[in-house]
Structures are given as structure tokens and as C-alpha cells.
Design a protein that fits this description.
This is Isoprenylcysteine carboxyl methyltransferase family protein. It is found in: Membrane. It comes from Nakamurella leprariae. With 183 residues, the chain is mostly helical. It has one domain: Up-down Bundle (Four Helix Bundle (Hemerythrin (Met), subunit A)), CATH 1.20.120.1630. It is built from 5 helices and 2 strands, in the order αβααβαα. It has a two-stranded antiparallel ribbon with strand order 1-2. The longest helix has 30 residues. The chain starts with 7 loop residues before the first helix and ends in a 9-residue tail after the last helix.
Length: 183
């Protein structure tokens, strides 16, 4: 098999994930309009560009690391990691469907709406971020892009620390809990 041809399935996987991200952005834009019509308030805009760069970097980093450094596909690692990528996508879309028009890539909260406590939110406060963490590790490791997995995971941990703090504060303010300031 040609050296570059062996990367085609992985490249197609990355393209599929990128396409899924585009769909997410379309859904998020529609949901932002829905929230705005209901008095939704966006917070946490400062970290959003970093999040976009980081998630784009995950896809590009995996692509470049695999093709430039000729990372091999190791079946004992690649197949379980692919299963985790698929599971992460399923969890992400379960979150999106459960939240409906309240789901967004940005932090947009409609004041007065109660928290969602069904679907994956029955068990986890932020299940979508579990999907992001799993995908950030598993997607690069499908084709042994170790550096991309490590760098994304470390940077994403910092990002999620900021984002979850801001999201929690926004939800508390929307629910009218006293003593919280804008982050």
C-alpha cells in the first residue's frame, strides 16, 4: 500500500468529525437566536476564541502528526480508541437532543428556565464536557498521535476549568441565586 494511502481512512475520520463540528455550529447559531428571543444572556465570550482555536488545533494537530511523523495505526490501540470516539459523539448528541434549543457552543442562558435534569444530565452535571475530554484523547490515539492527545488534553483541562466556572456562575445568576458576580 502507498505510504500516504494508509492514512486515508484516518483523514476521512477527521473530515467527518470536522463536518460534525460544522453541524454543531449551525445548531448553535439557531439555538442562540432562540435564546435571544427569550432574553438569553451570553457570558464567557473571552475564552470562546481560544476554544475554537483549540478544537481546530485538535483536528489539524492529529492530521499533521499522523502524516508528517508517519504515526502507525496500531489495531490494539486504534480500534478501542475509535469505539471511544463514536461513544463520545453519541454522548454529545444525546446532550444536544436533551437540551434542545438550550444547547449551545457558547454560554447562553435564558433567565428563569430550570436546569435540565433528564437524559445524561440525570447522572452528570456536564456530560458534554465528558464527551469532549474523551474525544480529545481518543481521536488522536486512533492513529497514535500521542503529542496531539497530550497537548490537547492539558490545554483543554485549563479551558474547561474556566468554562465550567463561568457556565456555573451564569446558570446560578439566571436562577436568581444571590452572591454571584459575572466572571
Amino acid at each position: 500500500m502507498d505510504t500516504h494511502a494508509r492514512y486515508v481512512p484516518y483523514i476521512l475520520l477527521l473530515v467527518a468529525v470536522a463536518g460534525e463540528r460544522v453541524v454543531e455550529l449551525v445548531v448553535a447559531r439557531r439555538n442562540s437566536a432562540w435564546a435571544a428571543r427569550r432574553g438569553g444572556v451570553e457570558t464567557g465570550q473571552g475564552h470562546y476564541p481560544f476554544m475554537v482555536v483549540l478544537h481546530t488545533g485538535l483536528l489539524l494537530g492529529a492530521l499533521l502528526e499522523v502524516t508528517i511523523l508517519h504515526r502507525p495505526f496500531l489495531p490494539w490501540l486504534g480500534w478501542p480508541m475509535l469505539a471511544l470516539v463514536v461513544a463520545a459523539q453519541a454522548l454529545r448528541w444525546w446532550c444536544i437532543l436533551t437540551l434542545g434549543p438550550r444547547w449551545n457552543t457558547r454560554i447562553v442562558v435564558v433567565p428563569g428556565l430550570p436546569p435540565i435534569t433528564r437524559g445524561p444530565y440525570r447522572w452528570l452535571r456536564h456530560p458534554n464536557y465528558v464527551a469532549v475530554v474523551v474525544e480529545g484523547i481518543a481521536l488522536p490515539l486512533v492513529h497514535t498521535a500521542w503529542w496531539t492527545a497530550v497537548v490537547f488534553t492539558v490545554l483543554n483541562a485549563g479551558l474547561l476549568t474556566v468554562r465550567i466556572r463561568q457556565e456555573e456562575a451564569a446558570m446560578a445568576r439566571a436562577a436568581g441565586l444571590p452572591g454571584l458576580r459575572a466572571p
